[in-house]
Specification:
- The protein has about 350 residues and is an alpha+beta fold.
- It has helices spanning about 1-20, 45-50, 60, 70-75, 105-110, 215-220, 235, 275-280, and strands at about 110-125, 140-155, 165-175, 185-195, 200-210, 245-255, 260-270, 295-305, 315-325, 325-330, 335, 340-345, 350-355.
- The protein is built from eight helices and 13 strands.
- The N and C termini lie far apart (about 45 Å).
Length: about 350
């Protein structure tokens, strides 16, 4: 009966995920659609195009493009959140409902973007190590789901610099094994992304989880499906925020090619008692401070190239974390406020060490 309950919950979760996350692939140049009113077909400038792998269409080029060959949904990409620099946003045309019944176009005319994302996970140990008291993700049939709402606003309409954008995101997460994947209903992003000097300098400030800015875990893995859940990720053990956002000020400096970069952030550590305690202390996501959590300094340098018609994507990065929060020592008595980690990530490799 217990397994049947798990299976029924999983079926519901899968059905929900298919509704929200099903995408289709289409050659947009072959579609006979007209651009939406008040929305430029492609709203990415040269600097953004170079860093995101999207080919910009200038006014001169636009005159050479058949308007009917460019669907309106291409223009909505400029309203996708750009603040999560360690992740890649799904293009609007590949979403379940690119137009959302006309809502996207109506909001885009006012500088507003909207998006929904649902992620599902299911784990089971095929060795059949079921137990009455579950001790790891998948020991018994285990599912998890995360659903997020994104809202963005074009801040240039209120006097900010070119391409400045505000992002608000709310997140709801549930699972059948809370020790690995805790239940969350929280604000996950409330922050501003402000590029300067053709994106050679970028400021990010507000409430945002550190994992959305550094490390790049979301590109090649899903910590929610690991045996111990997100708690097993080394940067989270050193205080990088995961589920609940932390007040953060991040400065990114890039060279002229926008490929070599250095990103330095001052943020608040998550609770030294771990992710579960951090969620308990900050359920809304809006707390400036939590007991025991002090300043965390993160620096990452690297080389990042988006995929193009002639080259694969590439991302090499070296990062360091230094946390001044008091962590319990397991190899001695007392606590330490001198906590650090170094990580090196490249395609096909992910490693780190901490002390």
């Amino acid at each position: 009966m217990r397994v049947q309950n798990y299976m029924s919950k999983t079926a519901i979760a899968i059905a929900t995920g298919m509704f929200f996350q099903l995408s289709y692939a289409a050659d947009v140049t072959a579609q006979n659609l007209s651009p939406g009113q008040g929305v430029t077909p492609i709203g990415v400038n040269g600097a953004d195009a170079q860093s995101s792998g999207v080919q910009a269409v200038t006014p001169a080029k636009a005159s050479q493009v058949d308007a009917k060959a460019v669907p309106a949904c291409v223009g909505y990409n400029q309203f996708n959140s750009r603040i999560e620099v360690a992740a890649i946003a799904m293009p609007s045309c590949l979403r379940v409902a690119p137009e959302l019944g006309g809502l996207r176009g109506a909001l885009a005319d006012k500088g507003i973007g909207i998006g929904f994302i649902s992620s599902l996970g299911y784990a089971y140990d095929l060795n059949g190590n079921n137990a009455a008291r579950q001790t790891y993700n998948g020991q018994n049939p285990s599912y998890n789901q995360t659903t997020s709402l994104y809202l963005t606003y074009d801040l240039t309409r209120v006097g900010f610099s070119k391409n400045a954008q505000f992002t608000f995101s709310a997140q709801w997460a549930t699972s059948s094994y809370r020790s690995a994947n805790p239940h969350v209903a929280t604000m996950s992003i409330f922050a501003i992304d402000q590029p300067l000097l053709d994106k050679q300098v970028e400021l990010i400030y507000g409430f945002i989880p550190g994992v959305r800015l550094f490390y790049g875990m979301t590109l090649g893995g899903n910590a929610s499906t690991s045996a111990l859940g997100p708690q097993s990720v080394v940067p989270f053990q050193v205080g990088m925020s995961a589920s609940e956002p932390t007040p953060t000020f991040d400065v990114i400096v890039r060279d002229r090619s926008l490929r070599f970069y250095d990103s330095f952030a001052v943020t608040r550590s998550s609770s030294p008692e771990g992710i579960l305690k951090d969620i308990e202390l900050n359920p809304s996501g809006f707390r400036l401070s939590v007991p025991g959590a002090r300043a965390l300094f993160i620096n990452e340098m690297g080389y990042k190239r988006s995929a193009s018609a002639t080259a694969n994507s590439a991302w090499f990065r070296l990062g360091t974390l230094y946390n001044t929060s008091p962590y319990t020592l397991y190899n001695a008595s007392g606590k330490s406020s001198n906590n650090y980690e170094v990580y090196l990530n490249r395609p096909g490799f992910c490693g780190g060490s901490n002390s």
